[in-house]
């Protein structure tokens, strides 16, 4: 699984509460990613077995809206995501394999909640941050 | 706004793998319904636009992409190769070498194309093969300024005549088994080129300062190919008393012949390989 910045953001959002079901718009708000980026990432994570998806069980007529699709990290996904983000943090930290100051600042990322999860290095690493885990 | 977003989502879904396409669209429509209920029109549009404009990278590209690229390359490179062959044929003839070399090269060119045209392409129907192979060729004929018949540079009508005759020939080629298709194809290619060159001489309007004798128009094509310069020349010039055409016809006849052979060989090749397996993913 290639850990790009969008993948890291999605993993971070899902890791905030691994037992909570998340849906597309919710994850878009949490990560700041557009739909065209988020859904392919979710699909890749599902294909890797890190994320499981299920349809919401509601009566669309009673709810007044169609059933949503929920996403949640699998047991394997929780462990893998934590490891991947930890490795990414190590790479992007000062003195790490990739220096954080090497990339162009991306002020938007830190404000989206990634920094709060201990992946603050992403905030200044730029889009070149990527690694392979799992 | 919601209708526009739905159209965009339908277009976006087509770019996803068929196995998950319906599920993706259902999911996106559910999110769209939530945004519509909240009257968030701008976000609805952004949501749909982002999906419609992004190419999902979900793994290896299917073989179809390679075949599509191969087909496009064949269709674009073919007329260029034919043009080069036509020019070489013109030079050979002008240098006094017998045109047999040119004809041998044409046959080799045709054989090579037949072997490769359909083997990795995506055009699997002869109905599509004929227009697909003729359109780039026609573009070459209409837009290449070096093509010339006695100073007559407006070859639009003769070239359209060539394309019309070739279309009929290629349809017949597609409907006929080998080896009859070869005879029909190559005979038709010669006939189409002959008709176009004859038409070009007929339509010559005195450009270049001389008038061509229409009664000899039909002889221009064979005379150019075999360098036979006999008969009366253009009226009002010092060439009267001779039938000199090769110096005026330039590369138009040779190019038409090469393009015709290319088109016939391509269609024969496609028709022989029209039973393709379904595209599969490659690693």
Can you lay out the helices and strands and say which pair or pack?
The complex is a heterodimer of chains A (134) and B (283).
Chain A: E1 2-3, H1 5-15, H2 24-31, H3 35-47, E2 51-55, H4 60-63, E3 69-73, H5 75-92, H6 107-110, H7 122-125, E4 131-132
Antiparallel strand pairs in A: 1-4, 2-3
Chain B: H1 2-13, H2 18-37, H3 41-53, H4 63-94, H5 100-117, H6 126-143, H7 156-175, H8 180-202, H9 220-226, H10 246-249, H11 252-272
Question: How would you explain this protein's 3D organization?
Answer:
The complex is a heterodimer of chains A (134) and B (283). With 134 residues, chain A is mostly helical. Chain A has seven helices and four strands. In chain A, the strands form two sheets. Chain A has a two-stranded antiparallel sheet. By secondary structure, chain B is mainly alpha-helical. Chain B has two domains: 2-53; 63-272, no CATH class. In chain B, helix 4 (63-94) runs antiparallel to helix 11 (252-272), helix 7 runs antiparallel to helix 8 (180-202) and helix 8 (180-202) packs antiparallel against helix 11. The longest helix of chain B is centred in the N-terminal third of the chain and has 32 residues, at 63-94. The two termini of chain B are 41 Å apart. The model of chain B is unreliable at 275-283 (pLDDT under 50). Chain A binds chain B through residues 23-25, 28, 34-37, 39-40, 43-44, 47, 64-69, and chain B through 12, 20, 23-24, 26-31, 33-35, 37, 46-48, 50-54, 56-59.
């Amino acid at each position: 699984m290639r850990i790009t910045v969008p993948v890291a953001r999605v993993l971070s959002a899902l890791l905030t509460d691994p037992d909570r079901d998340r849906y597309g718009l919710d994850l878009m708000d949490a990560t700041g990613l557009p739909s065209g980026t988020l859904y392919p990432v979710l699909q890749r994570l599902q294909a890797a077995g890190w994320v499981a998806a299920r349809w919401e069980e509601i009566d669309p007529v009673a709810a007044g809206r169609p059933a949503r699709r929920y996403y949640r990290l699998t047991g394997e996904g929780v462990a893998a995501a934590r490891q991947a983000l930890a490795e990414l943090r190590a790479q992007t930290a000062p003195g790490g394999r990739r220096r954080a100051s090497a990339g162009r600042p991306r002020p938007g990322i830190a404000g989206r909640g990634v920094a709060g999860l201990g992946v603050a290095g992403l905030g200044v690493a730029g889009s070149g941050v990527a690694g392979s885990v799992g | 706004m919601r209708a526009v977003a739905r159209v965009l989502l339908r277009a976006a879904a087509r770019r996803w793998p068929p196995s998950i396409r319906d599920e993706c669209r259902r999911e996106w429509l559910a999110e769209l319904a939530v945004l519509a209920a909240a009257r968030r029109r701008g976000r609805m549009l952004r949501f749909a636009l982002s999906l419609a404009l992004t190419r999902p990278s979900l793994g290896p590209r299917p073989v179809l992409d390679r075949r599509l690229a191969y087909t496009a390359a064949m269709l674009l490179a073919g007329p260029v190769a034919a043009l080069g062959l036509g020019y070489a044929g013109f030079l050979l003839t002008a240098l006094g070498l017998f045109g047999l070399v040119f004809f041998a090269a044409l046959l080799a060119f045709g054989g090579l194309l037949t072997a490769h045209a359909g083997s990795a392409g995506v055009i699997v129907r002869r109905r599509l093969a004929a227009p697909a192979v003729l359109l780039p060729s026609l573009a070459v004929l209409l837009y290449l300024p070096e093509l010339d018949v006695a100073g007559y540079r407006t070859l639009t009508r003769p070239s359209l005549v060539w394309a019309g005759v070739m279309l009929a020939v290629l349809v017949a080629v597609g409907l006929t088994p080998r080896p009859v298709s070869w005879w029909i194809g190559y005979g038709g290619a010669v006939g189409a080129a002959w008709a176009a060159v004859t038409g070009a001489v007929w339509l010559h309007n005195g450009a270049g300062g001389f008038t061509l004798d229409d009664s000899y128009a039909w002889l221009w094509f064979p005379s150019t190919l075999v360098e036979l310069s006999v008969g009366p020349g253009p009226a009002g010039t010092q060439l009267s008393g001779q039938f000199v055409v090769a110096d005026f016809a330039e590369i138009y006849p040779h190019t038409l012949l090469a393009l015709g052979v290319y088109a016939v060989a391509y269609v024969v090749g496609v028709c022989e390989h029209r039973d393709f397996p379904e595209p599969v993913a490659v690693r």
